[in-house]
Target: DNA-binding LacI/PurR family transcriptional regulator
Amino acid sequence: MSDGPVNDDKAQKKERMRFVSAEQVAQLAGVSRSAVSRTFTPGASVAPATREKVLRAAQELGYHVNDLARGVLANQSRLVGIVATKPEIGFRAHLAAALSKFLIQRGSIPILINTGQTEDELLAAQKMLIGHRAEAIIILSGSPPARFFELAQRNGQPLIVIGRSEPDADHVRAGNSEASRKAATVFFETGRRRLAVAGSNTGTPSIIERESAFLSTAERLGAEVFVGRGADSDYESGITAGRALFSNSVRPDAVYCANDQIAFGLMDYARQEVKLRIPEDVAIIGFDDVPEAAWLSYQLTTFRQDPLVMAMRAVELMERRLANPDLQPGYERVIPELIIRQSFRP
Model:
């Protein structure tokens, strides 16, 4: 039995899936291929009548310029890598979304690279960014290790780092220490004397800065200090921290959580497993102000990191670096605002 009709159908489907080419536009408009190219090249010379015919044909066919091919010819991809580990969790998800928004507005093409957590995954992420000649790389807090930075810098790619510091990179950081000192101070000023921090064993720069600033301030004030940590900076780690902090007869009466995800787990554990009242028995402050913090289940008092502000500052630093590669590294520090809700009211 002949499979001719089947093959013909496949060929027709494949043909329909092809992008409209500049050559097709030229044929429909009755102009040369170079006239189509000049029409879509900013600043190029083309007669008004020719431009009108080309634009009319392009609209009829649904033609769009192949920006990827144009970028290759110009040795500039316009790709900007957003690099993160677990980009779907907490504040990182909102920051990645905000970065994508601002990058698209400026005509860049954001590409989200999840570095993963294994050596092979990290190597694949490195090859992706270097191989596609990313215009710049924006790296979120906690990832990746230093050798990722070194490889990018050897290839001349501008680096903008959010939430950590790296030599020769532009960076944006939240005022972690300012917020953490304030958390300890407002707890103490309202009569809380057994102060705890719920953190993480991840050892990321932001987590370390928040924990250490809170603990040093609490000790200086003369408070009794407790520490509870989970394996990561997520909801489950909040439960782990809560179990460590509330399992003894002497419990903290105020807990500062290194981020909102930890705070959510800790609050649920305190209420469901230990039957504590919030804020009467234990007051809680978080960090980030993700949308869930305002949910009726939590009503979490927390320090707000505005993802739009952080993203805007990062893109501004990127544009500054692209315009002048020889500038000294730029530094932006954004001080979080304390958002008061029901988990603690100073």
User: Anything to note?
Assistant: The chain is about 45% helix and 15% strand. The first helix runs from residue 4 to 16.
